């Protein structure tokens, strides 16, 4: 198994100005930039550009030697997917910090997500990221706290099902989340955007090292994917973000772990406080969902994919409602 982790990771003010230097160091001369309409303004380079939502209708020539994703989750994921299909390197240039896809090998254009290749370089300009919508930066916190329950679920699967488990990847991922939670709860948040993007990059690298999404995706992600499925099934007009949904899921799933392990007492409250501090949703109402949708999502989450978590074989409607009520989600 070949594990690809970034050869260059630049996280600082003005980082985007070092893109051409990184390309030169990697001996890449003819990249294609994949971006969005709102993020094209950051692409001040003399390279070909394509919008991520037009790629399926574009004739991508095979003469490019790399793909650069500039923008949010969709631009990064689409660029990553294209690079993987063409068998060429991918460079991640995030303009916000809403999820760990900016550094992970995972492509989540649609479910189920799948493993592609991790970026060969990550260039995160913290000046640009700081100016991105506050809501996206709040959602990023939800994706990071997910690491807590993801690792607890992973260890549970190791104990109960004998699943392959990497202690080093698990500790790395969990530590990233704990350090960001501690920073958020004990600071004035002046450096939040910078700390967040570093945490998201670290989380993505943990996934690449483990060659699995296990270090950063567990029962809380299953809950989020279940909400996405219900949005589509019932044609719900709810614009909640992935990280926001994962954050609320983490509150509930950490509570389930607490009930089985007294050493974790108070964990879900600490997670909830950290989410509140950055103005991320912690309730169904704040997410925009009716209570019954939250309950239904909890009852179907275990079926989303073949992954053993604290949900095990599933929750009944009564158990799901009790969980949501006891954690204050509904």
TrEMBL record:
Pfam family, one: Fe-ADH_2
Name by which UniProt lists this protein: Glycerol-1-phosphate dehydrogenase [NAD(P)+]
GO function terms (MF aspect): glycerol-1-phosphate dehydrogenase (NAD+) activity; glycerol-1-phosphate dehydrogenase (NADP+) activity; metal ion binding
Record-level GO BP terms: glycerophospholipid metabolic process; phospholipid biosynthetic process
Native organism: Methanocaldococcus fervens (strain DSM 4213 / JCM 15782 / AG86)
Binding locations of Zn(2+): 143, 221, 242
Family label: Belongs to the glycerol-1-phosphate dehydrogenase family.
EC number(s) from the headed UniProt entry: 1.1.1.261
UniProt GO cellular component terms: cytoplasm
First-level EC class: oxidoreductase
Cofactor-binding details, from the entry: Binds 1 zinc ion per subunit.
Subcellular location(s) per record: Cytoplasm
Binding site for NAD(+): 73-77, 95-98, 104
Keywords of the record: Cytoplasm, Lipid biosynthesis, Lipid metabolism, Metal-binding, NAD, NADP, Oxidoreductase, Phospholipid biosynthesis, Phospholipid metabolism, Zinc
Amino-acid positions noted as binding glycerol in the UniProt annotation, renumbered to this chain: 100, 143, 221, 242
Residue ranges the record marks as coiled coil: none
UniProt function note: Catalyzes the NAD(P)H-dependent reduction of dihydroxyacetonephosphate (DHAP or glycerone phosphate) to glycerol 1-phosphate (G1P). The G1P thus generated is used as the glycerophosphate backbone of phospholipids in the cellular membranes of Archaea.
């Amino acid at each position: 198994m070949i594990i690809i982790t970034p050869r260059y990771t630049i996280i600082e003010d003005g980082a985007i100005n070092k893109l051409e230097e990184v390309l030169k160091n990697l001996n890449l001369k003819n990249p294609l930039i994949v971006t969005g309409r709102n993020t094209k303004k950051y692409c001040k380079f003399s390279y070909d550009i394509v919008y991520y939502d037009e790629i399926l209708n574009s004739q991508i020539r095979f003469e490019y030697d790399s793909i650069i994703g500039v923008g949010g989750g969709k631009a990064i994921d689409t660029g990553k997917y294209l690079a993987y299909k063409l068998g060429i390197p991918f460079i991640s240039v995030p303009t916000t910090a809403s999820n760990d896809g900016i550094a992970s090998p995972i492509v989540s254009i649609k479910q189920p997500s799948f493993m592609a290749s991790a970026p060969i370089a990550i260039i995160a300009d913290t000046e640009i990221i700081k100016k991105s919508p506050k809501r996206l930066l709040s959602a990023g916190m939800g994706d990071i706290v997910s690491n807590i329950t993801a690792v607890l679920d992973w260890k549970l699967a190791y104990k109960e099902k004998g699943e392959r488990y990497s202690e080093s990847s698990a500790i790395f991922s969990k530590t990233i989340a704990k350090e960001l939670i501690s920073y958020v709860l004990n600071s004035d948040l002046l450096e939040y955007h910078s700390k967040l993007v570093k945490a998201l990059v670290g989380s993505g690298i943990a996934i690449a090292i483990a060659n699995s999404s296990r270090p950063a995706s567990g029962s809380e992600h299953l809950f989020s994917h279940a909400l996405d499925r219900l949005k589509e099934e019932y044609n719900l007009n709810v614009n909640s973000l992935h990280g926001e949904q994962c954050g609320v899921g983490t509150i509930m799933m950490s509570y389930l772990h607490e009930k089985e392990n007294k050493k974790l007492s108070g964990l879900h409250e600490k997670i909830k406080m950290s989410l509140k501090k950055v103005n991320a949703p912690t309730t169904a109402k704040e997410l925009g969902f009716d209570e019954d949708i939250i309950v239904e999502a909890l009852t179907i989450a275990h079926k989303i994919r073949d992954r053993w978590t604290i949900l095990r074989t599933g929750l009944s409607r009564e158990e799901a409602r009790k969980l949501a009520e006891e954690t204050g989600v509904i």
